[in-house]
Amino acid sequence: MVLENMNCCEKKQLFLKINDEFEQIPFTFIKGKKQGLTALITAGVHACEYTAIETARRLSNEIDANDVTGNIIISNLLNVEAFRKRTPFIVPQDNKNLNKVMPGDKNGTKSEQIAYFLCENFAKISDFALDLHSGDLQEELTPHLYYIKSQEKICIEFANKTDIPYAVPVENSKALYGYMAILNKPALLMERGQMGNVDRDEVDNFVNDIKNILFSQGIYDYKNCSKEDKMTQIIKKSIYKTADMDGFFISHKKVGETVKKDEELYRIEDVFSNVKSIYKAEFDGIILYKCGALAIEKEHTSIAYGSI
């Protein structure tokens, strides 16, 4: 709805309003020198994943419309209210996870309306999507990405243009990449950075990842593009473990570390250091992310790992 009224080689950075009940959402629109594919880049679905949000900010400022063929749409910060209040995971107006309600509902709750606005207006007109994420305030993670199995061929081609070492295929998802697959379009959910920090090195890596993918699709003339494809490793099976009780989370494992079956991954203790629960690996694998806080709540994610 914005691109139609733009000239070639033009960039617009503006705020869009869903309705009178919402804060305005920042977007960057870049219309290239001639027609081509349209890429959708999103950040701030989870508002405390700062490395991802800073990456989107960098991209929106660094990409020159004169170097673009086609169009780039960047949602700089989708979950504005949560960012302002420093609220992790959810949209504070309805306590829902925006990453689990796509494609949303025009007349639904706040999260569902944001999701509908994104999907209806921008996902549908885009040829592919790159959804940028990071480890939230209490999440340690090693870089990895997710895609829908039905789009595996093109998604792995995208992944091999990045320095992200692991790719996790899933059957379906209520995140943006899941909705894009319903539209028969490729999309990645990409993870870099951790613990709610702005890791400048990881921002640089993330920016490079995205520019390389855009270059590979003929959208962006990236002069520093990588000359050789990487070999992203596909995770064959994975476990996303949640805590079975409240307590103190104790783990000596590091993200990206390989573990063996029956090796202890973490334990939960009480305030007096009494061990209440121990969790051991169910197969050999690699730790993708884990709780980085001392406190953990029952049914909250404790650790995720997968096998190659």
UniProtKB/TrEMBL annotation:
PANTHER family associated with the record: BLL3975 PROTEIN
Cofactor(s) listed: Zn(2+)
Protein's UniProt name: Succinylglutamate desuccinylase/aspartoacylase family protein
Record bears the keyword Zinc: yes
Native organism: Peptoanaerobacter stomatis
Alphabetic keyword roster: Hydrolase, Metal-binding, Zinc
Pfam families, alphabetized: AstE_AspA_cat
InterPro entries, per database record: AstE_AspA_cat (IPR055438), N-alpha-Ac-DABA-like (IPR043795), N-alpha-Ac-DABA_deacetylase (IPR053138)
Domain Succinylglutamate desuccinylase/Aspartoacylase catalytic, first and last residues per copy: 36-214
